[in-house]
Design goal:
single chain; alpha+beta; Chalcone isomerase; Serine Threonine Protein Phosphatase 5, Tetratricopeptide repeat; 5-stranded antiparallel beta sheet; two-stranded antiparallel sheet; 12 helices; 9 strands; 16% strand
Length: 327
């Protein structure tokens, strides 16, 4: 009996510790219904970081800001596990948002940004017992760098609730910005019907590769109608997609994407030069020569590329024309 108890006691202690940890990770409130800031939220499940994100129209100051803020998102472990299993957020879910300023010069860093001081700490909570609207939003920052131990719920007039309700991809949450959980929601079918995801360049490559150019082009047009500024329409993205399709052996599809790039960016010598290269690879000799000539012409007036790049385009196009005419 003694040996049995010795084996059972550690198990019971482990279960008790797990139950205590789960309770601590759930939302805790004061007697006057203020949310108590979890002290260990940095030990929770980290979801993502955004850099310089803004949900409203960009101001001139934001556009010129050399020090955009980072926002780091954490969620309590039990809710994370529930979401992985169901694609939904259970009651007692709590997200912590830690906003930090950024710097670009420090130690050995010469480019990009790294995180520095805490600017603000906020929370999003789903708790039907304490919040009439199920979801509530809280701010723990009394002044920059000063974080309180508890916080009152933001009034609905502050706009947080309305924004999350209208734009959250799953329930009242911005799962669209959490790449690993977005995949879960897609697989579980829990994305809101009102949310229409914009495919990334990599995802679009997979769609074209697996389902053909007609499917890909239809998706291009669908996204363009509602999100004309989407990343898939950037010249660099179109160029990348074309060459990735070429690497996958999809020559005709690669040419189609680069043709779209030249139509979208008719003044670009780079786009025309890339199309000429793909025409050549695809055995379309005359079209390759024609696009090479256009690339040379555009290099004279293209203001978005430097002199060195222009010269490389011109030299490469001339060699291509000579090569093709000599065949």
């Amino acid at each position: 009996m003694r040996h049995s108890l010795l084996r059972v006691i550690p198990v019971l202690l482990t279960l008790a510790a797990a139950a205590t940890a789960q309770k601590a990770a759930a939302p805790q409130f004061t007697a006057d219904n203020q949310l108590i800031r979890p002290k260990d939220y940095r030990e929770w499940v980290y979801l993502t970081s955004g850099l310089g994100m803004s949900y409203g129209p960009a101001t001139a100051n934001q556009l010129s800001d050399a020090s955009p803020v980072f926002d780091n998102v954490f969620v309590n472990p039990s809710s994370y596990k529930a979401f992985l299993a169901t694609g939904k957020w259970p009651d007692k879910t709590i997200f912590m948002l830690e906003i930090r300023s950024s710097a670009s010069h420090g130690s050995i860093n010469k480019n990009g940004h790294f995180q520095t001081d805490v600017v603000a700490v906020e929370a999003a909570v789903k708790d039907e017992a304490h919040i009439p609207d199920k979801w509530g939003y809280f701010g723990f920052t009394e002044s920059p760098g000063s974080v309180s131990d508890s916080a009152k719920i933001f009034p609905k007039s502050a706009g947080c609730f309305a924004c999350h309700t209208a734009n959250g991809a799953v329930d009242n949450t911005f799962v669209q910005f959490y790449p690993t959980l977005l995949e879960v929601a897609e697989a579980k079918g829990t994305l809101k019907a009102s949310y229409h995801p914009v495919p990334t360049p990599s995802k679009l490559v997979h769609i074209i590769n697996d389902q053909g150019w007609d499917k890909g082009h239809a998706l291009f047009e669908e996204v363009k109608a509602r999100e004309p500024e989407a990343d898939i329409f950037k010249e660099s993205a179109l160029n990348m997609m074309g060459y990735r399709l070429l690497g996958a052996g999809k020559k005709a599809e690669a040419v189609a994407v680069l043709k779209l790039a030249t139509m979208s960016y008719p003044a670009s010598c780079n786009a025309q030069d890339s199309l000429a290269e793909l025409y050549e690879v695809n055995g379309q000799k005359e079209l390759a020569i024609e696009s090479s000539k256009k690339a040379i012409e555009l290099a004279a007036t293209d203001t978005k590329v430097g002199a060195d790049r222009k010269q490389r385009v011109i030299d490469g196009a001339k060699k291509r024309i000579e090569r093709l005419r000599g065949q």
